[in-house]
User: Fold this.
Amino acid sequence: MVARRFFWLLFILCLPFTSFSSPDARVEIYNIRYWTHPNFTRIVIDTGKLREYVYKELSNPDRIYVDVYQAKLNPILHGKNILVNNEYISQIRIAQKTTSTVRTVADLDFEKIKHYRVYHLFDPFRIVIDIYPQIGRTGSPSTKSSTPPKPTEEGYTMIRQLGLGIRRVVIDPGHGGSDPGCVGKKGLKEKDVVLQVSLLLKKLLSTRKDLEVILTRETDISMSLDDRPVIANQKQADLFISIHANALPNTRFSGVETFYLNFSRDPKVNEIAARENATSTKNIGEMTEIIKKIVRNSKIVESKELAKRIQKQLVKQLSQKYSGINSLGVKGGPLWVLIGGEMPSVLVEISYLSNPRDEARLSSPQYLQEVARGIYDGILEYIHSLGKG
Assistant:
């Protein structure tokens, strides 16, 4: 009997320790990324699951840190240092501070910092650090004009009644990073085309001293649909312009069209909405709240007005130098990138990558310049309709 007990005791002691250990409750931090906009730098810590975190600033040397609890670092991120090429942040560091805490540090100069924000977003869970420099382009109000605003088809909106103008424009190049968007038969990617057009449009708008222009992305980075209108809201933008290129199974289909946020019964519009919204992380249980957001959107009338003017000028500009430019009109649609914006917002489909002629034109720098010029003229016409500019 004693021998048998000794045998079982020896057997238990020899079992691997992991057989008795509890599952690892730590979440794995699998990515850290950043990008610098004209007026701020954003750092994103991807955790994927909800976790408690704290943040604090320290001096000598100046830095901001965020500690994420019940977390472990992916091995590829151990000791990772990211050099940041701007005047107010020198580098970003991430490390396993303790066995259950991961610390991210932004080394910076507080004398050059105006303020910063640390907050989180869901679906998937991620922690965001926005750092704003002291010196930046703040813009100036549009030049006051004695010309009264023109009414829309529905009359004078609150924007026009209050005599409000345009100072800050956010341009959103669609897709990016791991999301190429539509891809033409010859391999031309939507994400690359719309970024080029957005940079050209920014250059045109920046010639006006009364306008400040911000891009949601200036390089080939991944960006969720949710973050795009959030940036516009955070920057208190007056206009939001999302730029895309389209595609359909029917390769003969071509043209340009402009969308604003609304419901639609048009099957083609709903097909486009389904394709553009494909990367959304929202769930069916959130549909009621999403519909309420669309219904509550008081900027629908102004968004439609902006869309009409951009569509008109875009078609006009392209038709001057290119034949067969089809105007597919202005349409309302439930496009996710337009939901949540607190300003007039439109989505411009600049051509069809699925059409061979359109794809060839979209690969031409001259055509992209004309597209940017047409959108630019439409924005200016809209500003003038407000009695400004």
Remarks:
- The mean pLDDT is 83.
- The domain at 27-133 is CATH 2.60.40.3500 (Immunoglobulin-like).
- Residues 273 and 335 are 5 Å apart (CA to CA).
- The chain has nine helices and 17 strands.
